[in-house]
User: Fold these one by one.
Assistant:
Number 1:
Amino acid sequence: MFRKKGQSTLEYVLILTAIIGAIIVAATTFVKPRVEESLNHVTQEMKDQVEKIQFGGAQAGGAAADGAAAGGV
């Protein structure tokens, strides 16, 4: 009697493990490329903004003058 109950429990655990494994595989297949694409986009935007900054006063007033010329943004 206990043996059959233990066997049923083991079968449920194996099925649940298979389902969780399938979910993990699906997540890495479909979600990972989108996350990587988003991170690459954010990284590129940050690089673009850093390149716009002028350090060391290349013009009179440096970056502060650029901010004032751009409307204070």
Number 2:
Amino acid sequence: MVNTMILKILKNQRGQGLTEYAMILSIVSIVAVGTVTYFGQIIIDTFYGMINDAFSGL
């Protein structure tokens, strides 16, 4: 019973498309997390620097 269901899923083209979509989504998520981790502190420093420059003239 379970083997038959697994074989049907593996033969189903929609299942293959869903698997490819999940893999692409996973890769994009990993790249996004890596980018934010790598550039996060630079972005925060730049943001706070602009805020300090904007309010230092008050």
